[in-house]
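S.,

Sequence below, as promised.
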Amino acid sequence: MKAIAFALLIIALAIEPTRAQQHFAQWSDTALVLNNGIVTRTIKLPSSTGNFLTTLYKPANGDFKYFQKTNTDFQFEVSGVVYSGRSNWKLIKINVISDAKSGDGASVTLQSADNKIQVSVNFLLYPSSPAIRKSITVKNLTNDLFKLESPDIEKFEVEKYSASTFSWVCHDYGRRRTIGPYESNLQDALITVHNSDWQQGIVIGNEAAGVVKRTSVFWEELTICTGLTHKDARYPFRKWIKPGESFETPQVFTMVYNNHKDPDEILNTDVADFVRKYMGVRLFELKQKPTFVYNTWEPFYTNINEKLVMDVAKAAADAGMKEFIIDDGWETNFGDWEIDKKKFPNGLKPVFDYIRSLGMKPGLWISIGSASPGSKVFKTHPEWFVLDEHGSYTNLHTAGSGIRTACFGTGWYHYIKDILLKLSVDYGLEYMKLDFTVVTSPYRYDHTQSGCYALNHSGHKDHNESLFTNYEKVWQLFDELHAAKANLFLDCTFETMGGLQLIDYALVKHAEGDWLSNYGMPNELTDLRIRNMAWWRSPAIPATALVIGNPEMQDSGWQMHIKSIAGALPIMLGDPRKLTGTDLAKCRAWADWLQLMQNKYDIMSFRQDVNGFGEPMEGMWDGYQRINTDTKAGGIIGIFKHGATENERQVTILNLLPEKMYTVRKAVSGGAVVVATGAQLATTGFKVSIPEHYGGELFEISSE
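The prediction came back faster than expected:
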């Protein structure tokens, strides 16, 4: 009878998957079914005791060939003992769970046969999305401290031949393809496994931070796993759990799909939609997103003072900048973060007030985890700072520098929080650029030069645990800053993230942006690198979170800089005082146009690939489009020629309403190029001519 009842449950879910306020999780005594009408997954439950196994996972419609009939589902080690879905479990309870982003699902609590741990396996599904988001919570039922290691939050066994032999593993933000066994690195927030013969695959998104995230595909065995780094990794995850306490892992998400010829199709559609609508990305919480940012770093570096900053601010405002960021050089030292009164005799508040009077939002650079050896804070609280493996104070950022790196598992957390709160709340900052290493460095290649080896810091028991907990404390700090000032834009640099040009889902859930680079060439070489970086990390990562420096305003090709950077977060450096009055007016026109496009279409929330245009590179054409896929009202498109031999390309535009009429207009001037339906623009499109060897054009697509 149970089998018949369960079969009827499956049929009911398939017939009526979208009824109002329906829960996406249903269960019987023997199985949990997750179904939102887009994707379905069945998990075998222990009837009294037994296994917890995924027995079916596929798109709701059509077939799916990747997985075996039984899948391990999860696996981890506790003090050297392996527990997994194939272990013997007692079912304790099942609860409906939800989140603030329309997520709905179930949490299944299991108890191990040895009665040492409880595990809650947490699943969330979302309306009209193929994503299944998952975490596991481990509770210590013993009287002893134990260590959690090597957690695979998802573990699937794949079909034995075609899945591993004929699949592309699309790693590095889903943009680079390889075949055969693959183990991820810090850049793999998202991996797609795609079989072009089957035209189906699986997206694996990992929301863990930096160097402690791990995804493996066919690695050592025919499985697909995602979670946290294993105990034998270069940067191993470890969490010590006290008796009676619990630890919940970061979330991961997976999407199974079929009927897609190319894996980039899923990136540009379902992945981008899930990240924008349901992940909880900070950028999308902002009421006003930045559209044109100025930063003082180049060419001034630390050689700044009150008069220079005010003079540059006036020119930047004339050029149409909306945010003005004062970079390094305002402080007396790292750590105390006192204002250098020789450079700023009246303090920074009058400077910030002046920036606001010009119609710009003020911002400031600070290193959140660094102190000079001569600073008062280091002399007073040396116990707050990272120790290396030999027990000495160290600078995790670069070797040979006198800076000391602070440990967030100490009183430093509250100390730096108070400083940042004062700057943001009392001084009215709207933007903070937060810099330098806190866990690992992009510039140190010895993995032992990472984390904190102190054994007396309250935030971690040992070095391995510090790798995870210091990231988590930084995210907690960001969340508390946002609680105090909701619209604060936090730019957490790749140096703070701990890897070259590193950005991931952990960051974008807690900070709005990531300073990704310092490109300094004055010509088309910078433009290519900007567009390449933006293409490379989007659409897996929201484009406006990509803060790509350092195009300069006084460069002869500054207009191409703007056109290129408009595909990410528009940011400029340089000296705007060097622009002629005519060029200042032109720059202002670009700034006003970008703001208008944001006001009309919210372009900073969207970015897609242009159909038929690939990775930006020498000798090719490339492009991006930022169409509002929610309203379909329009957006912008950028088309670039970078040394290609042909001077003309046919351009098509996707993501528009087929029957609606649209006008394609040239950027800034507004001259009409073509009037056509969305269907015509998707199939026939329009021609773009660029006679220059290196050049580009931006267009507005409007339904008005």
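The longest strand covers residues 146-157.

Coffee later?
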